[in-house]
Amino acid sequence: MGQAICMRCNAPMDGEDVSGGDRVCRVCTSTLSSVLETLDLPAAYVNRDLTVMTSNLMFKKLFEKFTHDTRGLRLGEAMKCHGSSGYGRCGETSLCLHCGIKRMVDLAHITGEKFADIPLVLRDESGTEQLIRFSFTKAEDSILVMVKEETA
Ligand SMILES: [Zn+2]
Predict the structure, then answer these.
(1) What mean pLDDT is predicted for residues 43-60?
(2) Ligand 1 centre and the CA of 115: distance in Å?
(3) Ligand 1 centroid to 6 CA: how many Å?
(4) Number of domains in the chain
(5) How far, in Å, from the CA of 140 to the mean position of ligand 1?
(6) How far, in Å, from the CA of 141 to the mean position of ligand 1?
(7) What's the burial of 121, exposed, middle or buried (CB within 10 Å: 0-12/13-18/19+)?
(8) Could you list the residue range(s) of the whole structural domain that residue 53 is in?
(9) Phi-psi region of 20 (alpha: psi -120 to 50; beta: other; left: phi over 0)
(10) The CATH number of the domain where 118 resides is what?
């Protein structure tokens, strides 16, 4: 095992628990978390490769229905996307080629533009499709993803 490095600030993560794929240091986690908790929407910071750096409580409640940490999961895994259950890692399966969420994260990275209220369909593990409005905002090297559920 090599030295674990924070994927946000590149600081070595000495003495931190990096099991479970968590690769953001404590300082960055608390910085990003404090921003997210000021928002009144479910929100998460994701990396270019769709790894969730941290998410707020509303996001965890919306998708997780349990309390465990979403850090280190890919966005699709945290959102229980059907593509991430049995096909491979989120962002790397053949289904991901057609994923609007992945495409928008890429676009926000490349252009630096903010994309607000983009309606996208998320199909969950049970095959249920849900229309969700996503916003994507570039923040440093990550993308702030905000989620608005459509009320039926
Ligand atoms: Zn850091």
Answers:
(1) 91
(2) 26
(3) 5
(4) 1
(5) 13
(6) 12
(7) exposed
(8) 19-149
(9) left
(10) 3.30.450.20
Q: In this predicted structure, what is the pLDDT of residue 22?
A: 58
Both tokens assigned to 110? 């490349």
pLDDT in tens, 93-111: 998 999 999 999 999 999 9
Tell me the residues surrounding ligand 1 (ion) with CB < 5 Å.
Answer: 6, 8-9, 11, 25, 28
* pLDDT band, very low/low/confident/very high, at 61 (cuts 50, 70, 90): confident
Looking at the domain assignment, is residue 3 inside a domain?
no
Which of 111, 107, 109, 93 shows the shortest CA–CA distance to 143?
A: 109
- Could you tell me the distance, in angstroms and rounded to a whole number, from the CA of residue 21 to the centre of ligand 1? 14
